[in-house]
Fold this protein.
Amino acid sequence: MTGAEPAGPLPAVARPAPAALPTVPPPAGADLAIGLAALAVAATRAAGRLPRTAWARLPLPAAVRRAARQAGQAVAAHGTVERGVAVAQLRRLADALVPRVVEAVLTRIDVADLVRAHVDLDRIAARLDVDRVVVRVDLDAILDRLDLDAIAARLDLDAVIDRVDVDRIAARLDLEPILARVDVDAIATRLDLDAVIDRVDVDRIAGRLDLEPILARVDVDAIATRLDLDAIVERLDVVGLTRYVLDQIDLSGLIRASTGSISSDVVRGVRSQGADADRAVERMVDRLLLRHHGRHSTNDGPAGGTAPGPDGAPGRGRP
Amino acid sequence: MAAPDRERAGGLPDGSRAAATARYPWRAPHTPAPVPAARPVVQGRRAGLVTRLLANALDAGVVVLLLAAGYVAVAAGRFLLDPVAFRFPVPPPSLLLLLGGVVLFVYFALAWGGGGRTYGDEVLGLRVGGARGEQLRRPRATLRAALCVAFPIGLLWVLVSRRNHSIQDAVLRTSVVYDWPSPDADGVHRP
């Protein structure tokens, strides 16, 4: 701060006019003592102004001069002693008085109001060279004295984060230089991945994954090319699998059913073709006999057994 | 596996589907086998001459087999009785004809009086019943068997009869109808 004084003289500060002191009539004895002391002081000063050469020119005997010099020296020595004693007493007096006086003064004066009324802090601050101040601040020392843990413990980080517009910050971040300075290997070495993974809800992440674009980028053919199918087949219980499949599809039953259906198809074909041949012969004979109404070849009444009627209804002919 | 493949092929655009079909033939759209046209239902109608002749031919074959079995039995019996003097018997044709007629009569009478079908009827899908298709009783079945054996030519009347009746049918008021289980009737196929 000592180097921050301005180079030029301070401008005159407007001061209020001193209040008029109350006039008290001094006592007459005091005035007389002050007058005598002033005369003594003036005489002393006049004596002091006498040049030493004038004293040397006085026609005095050598003995008197010697006695006077010795007397002067003795008086000077005594004065020196007295001065020292007086100074010591004055110091003690000042030590005792000054704190009390200052305390009494300060109790009667509102220093803050006084400063606010008489000092233009804005002008002082305007003339401060804050840059130079900051340059001289020892931030390391300050930081050494700070208890950052205590500060962090008192911080309401949620409230702070609520007020931060992370999107804006992220949009303004130039990540490239930051990433260039990050030693990812070192970070990875220090990471406790097990602990991280334990805290991850993998099911939730999988539920939010859009697998379609991922699968669209997967080259399944390449994966299939690298598959060792022989190894897979070797681990498969092919015989058991085949037996299970054959049991499920009931191959023997299928063969039996298909054989039976073949023979039944042959029989049904013979019957149908026989019936067709009957109809053909009937039509030919009817044409030869010039019949125009065909034959009435259905039964007169309800038939027994399983024979269906002419309309496909089982076993019932027309009356 | 076929159904998902067809679905996958069906979800492709036309060009991709053609390419996929060329590369994977099993992914071609499935074309079901052609269904035969529905035939007119003949069950319950009186049978014509062709099927009845065929049935009689089969029955004649059955009778021949029975006669052959009888012949083998008689020959084996004779051999057992007198192996030294054994010779295959040579029955006269009249005896064979008579035996054949008897066997045929018995066979017809038992078959028609029982289930209404001989073996030939069974194969050709015929059934012998009354005028309304009802089951024949033993006496009428026996009479019909006798008439059929004695006068087989009466079958030819079917050709000219408007009701597809043979002489025996006309006399005894019987009928021969097509009667086989239709697979379309109840959806279950019975051979």
User: Anything to note?
Assistant: Chain A touches chain B through 41 residues (CB under 8 Å). The CA atoms of residues 25 and 31 of chain A lie 11 Å apart.
